[in-house]
Amino acid sequence: MKANTQPPATARILRLPEVAARIGMSRSSVYLLMNRGQFPKSVKLSLRAVGWRESEIDEWANSRPSAA
Q: Which residues of 17-49 are buried (b: 16+ CB within 10 A; e: fewer)?
């Protein structure tokens, strides 16, 4: 009997404008938190491009206290 397994989730890479929009912070705030070790590290995409793993951004956002 086969176990119920789901296909792996698609690993999506987000660029900075989408990351900033999702978390409601500016570019400088993202890099400041990243340098302090309080935000997920970026991944190098090419010589001059970086991105962030969507799963890590979602996990980080869900770990933050809500404003309510």
A: eebbeebeeeeeebeeeeeeeebbebeeeeeee
Cα separation, 63 vs 49, in Å, equals 27
pTM value is 0.78
Sheet holding 43-44, edge to edge: 13-14, 50-53, 43-44
Does residue 24 have a pLDDT over 70?
Answer: yes
Q: In angstroms, rounded to a whole number, what is the distance separating the alpha carbons of residues 39 and 56?
A: 9
d(CA 16, CA 22): 10
Q: For the chain, what are the domain ranges?
A: 13-62
